[in-house]
């Protein structure tokens, strides 16, 4: 069974339906992994944050018959799913945030399938992968690299894919159904619970009233919102630094040609800096190329402390040993630091065992009329799958509550 058929079968089974075999015919999926029962008691629901968790919650609640308002601080939707296009020419693009989709993330793949988005492998099966260890450069053949894993508990490289036209197409597909419901550049600053509902005030002086709230904000920026009454002690402690987050920074460089291909290199590799090097444009229709370094934790903090010029020179100096001639071939550089992003404040949660034990189970707990979503409320830290699951869970809580 092909992956697509497998997902279709799983979705239909979840929805209690059977897959009717119709050879050579395109089967149209009309259900999502998060489908809710239609309500006969619609509620007014305010969702804070138009990242993928807020969007999926809004999408499913609206389909179930509820009235949805989504308040988003940024002037764009998608949150930490951000496909960078604009600074680059020739139609090339790269992911600043969510990039790889493992083949066991059924919910993510289920929505991709539902919206009929095409997938491509994340890693190419041609050209050599390059590694630089102790200043020594060597090549890894693609067959060998694809069977390896980016980290020990991960699926293999060959089991990762990406949305062909950019991962932002998934939040965009959800947004298309919610255009009238989403208010951009509308940061929430206070949430007040009353006996019969909730009141949200925004930085623009607007007030929104509703029956329920879904708050999807990542913990590092949740302290920009005041809650009345206060949130539980566990949530407050987690918000105030008790639940560690990782930093992550990507620095992207464009080149008018893919000069590295002359040496048989495919533009992907790793160094013991440590860093992962990607060539996101490998399957994009252009002769130009884009290379990026993916820096995490200490290396991201180090890179964030430098100004753009110094940071770029440092990376390109190192890369001269990886892609000879790189310094003379770069036309543009672009850095995206998630720690410096006003509405994210960090990459994703990386709690210690003690932090997880102390706070993990309380982050997604309902408090009065406020439901909590976001990838940090699930075990899938740093994955779209977690964000989607949390949005569906919060939507279900509200929908089930309305039924009873
Ligand atoms: C560097 C990086 C690499 C990643 N790699 C992958 C990957 O390869 N594969 C994968 O599946 N996932 C990956 N992820 C994780 C994935 O991007 C996230 O799990 C997911 O996008 C989180 O969605 P969310 O809705 O929980 O949060 P967010 O996307 O953070 O959404 C929260 C939203 O709330 C908004 N907001 C903040 N404050 C306010 C306010 N006061 N009022 C209103 N709105 C507000 C924000 O602007 C944002 O839009 C990566 C993330 C990062 C940062």
Question: What is the count of structural domains?
Answer: 3
Largest sheet: 7 strands, mixed
CA(first)-CA(last) distance: 40 Å
Quaternary structure: single chain
Helical content, roughly? 25-40%
Uncertain segments are 1-26
CATH fold topology of the largest domain: FAD/NAD(P)-binding domain
Number of H/I helices: 11
Mean pLDDT over the residues:
93
Decide which structural class fits the backbone. alpha/beta
Heteromolecules bound: flavin-adenine dinucleotide
Radius of gyration: 22 Å
Keywords, separated by commas or semicolons:
404 residues; alpha/beta; FAD/NAD(P)-binding domain; Polyamine Oxidase, Chain A, domain 2; five-stranded parallel β-sheet; 11 helices; binds flavin-adenine dinucleotide
């Amino acid at each position: 069974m092909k992956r697509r058929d497998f997902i279709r079968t799983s979705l239909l089974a979840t929805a209690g339906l059977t897959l009717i075999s119709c050879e050579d015919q395109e089967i149209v999926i009309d259900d999502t992994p998060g489908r809710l029962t239609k309500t006969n008691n619609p509620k007014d629901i305010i969702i804070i944050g138009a990242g993928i968790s807020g969007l999926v919650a809004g999408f499913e609640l609206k389909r179930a018959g509820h009235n949805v308002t989504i308040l988003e601080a940024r002037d764009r939707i998608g949150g930490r799913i951000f496909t960078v296009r604009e600074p680059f020419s020739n139609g090339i693009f790269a992911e600043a945030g969510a990039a790889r989709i493992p083949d066991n993330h059924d919910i993510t793949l289920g929505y991709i399938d539902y919206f009929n988005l095409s997938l491509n492998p994340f890693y190419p099966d041609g050209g050599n992968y390059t590694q630089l260890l102790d200043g020594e450069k060597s090549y890894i053949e693609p067959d060998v690299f694809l069977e390896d894993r980016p980290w020990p508990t991960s699926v293999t490289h060959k089991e990762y894919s990406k949305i062909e036209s950019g991962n932002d197409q998934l939040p965009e597909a959800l947004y298309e159904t919610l255009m009238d419901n989403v208010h951009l550049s509308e940061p929430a600053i206070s949430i007040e619970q009353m006996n019969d509902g909730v009141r949200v005030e925004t930085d623009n002086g607007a007030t929104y009233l509703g029956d329920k709230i879904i708050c999807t904000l990542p913990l590092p920026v949740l302290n920009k919102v005041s809650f009345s009454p206060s949130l539980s002690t566990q949530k407050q402690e987690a918000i105030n630094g008790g639940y560690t987050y990782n930093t992550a920074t990507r620095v992207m460089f464009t080149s008018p040609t893919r000069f590295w291909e002359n040496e048989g290199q495919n533009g992907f590799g790793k160094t013991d800096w440590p860093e992962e090097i990607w060539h996101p444009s490998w399957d994009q229709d252009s002769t130009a190329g884009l290379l990026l370094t993916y820096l995490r934790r200490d290396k991201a903090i180090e890179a964030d402390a430098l100004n753009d010029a110094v940071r770029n020179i440092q990376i390109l100096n190192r890369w001269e040993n990886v892609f000879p001639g790189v310094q003379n071939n770069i036309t543009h550089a672009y850095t995206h630091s998630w720690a410096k992003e006003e509405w994210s404040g960090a990459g994703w949660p990386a709690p210690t065992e003690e932090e997880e034990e102390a706070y993990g189970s309380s982050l997604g707990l309902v408090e009065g009329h406020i439901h909590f979503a976001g990838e940090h409320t699930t075990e899938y830290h740093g994955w779209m799958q977690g964000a989607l699951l949390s949005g569906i869970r919060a939507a279900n809580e509200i929908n089930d509550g309305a039924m009873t």
